[in-house]
Specification:
single chain; 460 residues; alpha/beta; seven-stranded mixed β-sheet; 17 strands; globular
């Protein structure tokens, strides 16, 4: 295949997500052809360390033989049949496995194919739950609470509970009402004090809201421990547990969006385990198939599920479903992915590598434009600032962070930025040596851009 033609056709026909296409079409596109372990290889044969886990999804590496084998074995049986009114073997086995590995009494699995859809399902289930119980008593329970700078996906319902103005403001006329509460972003909330004081401020604001409006609130949705798209905002210890306790106290359904943080990313299979939290509803996706195929799931407790049981004429049915819900290929891959995680002791491995990575990352503070380093497991955010004292960030026109990302690619590493934050989201099975290479490359790339822009002096 002619690479020049591929580039032209890409620019002519493909509309890329979260991408300003005017800018994209002015540059040479990166076209990936294949993958090997922790590396992506483009059509020109250049190798790049996948420091973004191909949008936070890859677990065991690219072109993993056992996952390949699971996919081939399943496709030789059947690729897809509908889950509407009938069942299939992989979806049954996976649902049982998910019920076993999720905390508490989560046991009823509803499949979808993206994290956004998993959230959409959670919101609809939470709303209908109250209507199924007592539509008159709960007629006002139609609002959801989420944190400032929350991100829960891009479908209309998921955007409605999002709090990222940059992404969501254009769609405001389409959205249902959301109630926002402060997020404990300690780095930018020093007026309240240190982590514990920031946590208490946010919890107090949440409790005030619930005291006043609990009769109107169907559920609270939260990204446990880390707000990913907000810039890897790590919450103070104990915040999630206190949120759970407040939800129980005021009879609000707790929805944990584990799409980004689940399947080992923060150092436990699911992030909420770290604070012994059992949500009423959990959303999962991304790493569920090891980065191979689209699959997501929303898992509920028995109490919620039983509220949907009734005679047909009662219309308590959950009228929701997708064509590829519970697809056999995706479910078979998810089963093999979880099996490999358990067999290889990947969770323990992530915990060990996370501690080593914490020490390695400290070197980035040698660079004066590094303001804050945030990490939870193998989720890392490096906030780039113009001034450490004021925490002022660079403008889009100054283009510092984007140039660091480009420089990293030139140096053989694929990462992405989230506003002023450089994010590293490595493949979970990446070796210690490869993780060190990732951090060294980020250091070098920040340093080179800072020198080029006159922000720091080159060493003699």
């Amino acid at each position: 295949m002619n690479n020049y033609l591929l580039e032209q056709w890409d620019k002519e026909y493909v509309w890329h997500p979260f991408t300003q296409m005017k800018t994209y079409r002015e540059s040479k596109p990166l076209i990936i052809e294949r993958g090997e372990g922790s590396y992506l290889i483009d059509v020109d044969g250049n190798r790049y360390l996948d420091g973004y886990a191909s949008l936070w999804v890859n677990v065991h590496g690219h072109n993993e033989p056992e996952l390949n084998g699971a996919l081939i074995a399943q496709v030789n049986k059947i690729a897809h049949s509908t889950l509407l009114g009938s069942a299939n073997v992989p979806s049954i086995l996976l649902a049982k496995k998910l019920a076993e590995i999720t905390p508490g009494d989560l046991s009823k699995v509803f499949y979808s194919d993206t994290g956004s859809a998993a959230v959409e399902i959670a919101l609809k289930v939470a709303y209908q739950y109250w209507q199924n119980i007592d539509p008159d008593k709960h007629r006002h329970k139609n609002k959801f609470v989420s944190l400032d700078e929350a991100y829960h996906g891009d479908t209309v319902g998921a955007v409605s509970v999002g709090g990222m103005d940059l992404y969501h403001r254009i769609f405001k006329p389409l959205l249902f009402e959301r109630i926002s509460v402060p997020s404990p972003y300690a780095y930018h909330m020093t007026e309240y004090g240190e982590n514990e004081a920031v946590k208490n401020h946010c919890l107090n604001e949440l409790e005030k809201l619930l005291q006043q409006q609990s009769a109107e609130i169907a559920g609270l949705i939260i990204e446990p421990l880390v707000q990913g798209a907000a810039g890897i905002v790590t919450h103070p210890d104990g915040f999630l547990k206190e949120v759970e306790m407040l939800c129980k106290q005021y009879d609000i359904l707790l929805i944990c969006d584990e799409v980004a943080v689940g399947f080992g990313r923060t150092g436990t299979m699911f992030a909420c385990e770290q604070e012994d939290v059992v949500p009423d509803i959990m959303c999962m996706g991304k790493g569920i198939t090891g980065g191979y195929m689209p699959l997501a799931a929303t898992i509920m407790n028995e109490r919620i599920f039983h509220s949907f049981l009734g005679e047909r004429e009662e219309h308590k049915t959950f009228y929701h479903g997708h064509t590829y819900t519970g697809n056999q290929l995706a479910c078979a891959l998810a089963l093999k992915n979880i099996e490999l995680m358990e067999e290889r002791g990947l969770i323990h491995d992530i915990q060990v590598k996370s501690r080593q990575l914490t020490n390695k990352l400290q070197a980035l503070y040698e660079l004066p434009i590094v303001g804050d380093i945030r990490q939870r497991g193998l989720m890392i955010g490096v906030e780039i600032v113009k001034d450490r004292q004021t925490k002022e960030t660079f403008s889009l026109q100054e283009n510092v962070v984007s140039e660091i990302i480009v420089k990293a690619r030139e140096n053989g590493l694929i990462i992405r930025e989230l506003g002023a934050v450089i994010t590293m989201m490595p493949i979970l099975a990446m070796s210690e040596e490869e993780l060190n290479t990732m951090v060294d490359t980020v250091y070098r790339s920040i340093q080179e851009v800072a020198i080029d822009k006159g922000l720091i002096q080159a060493a003699n």
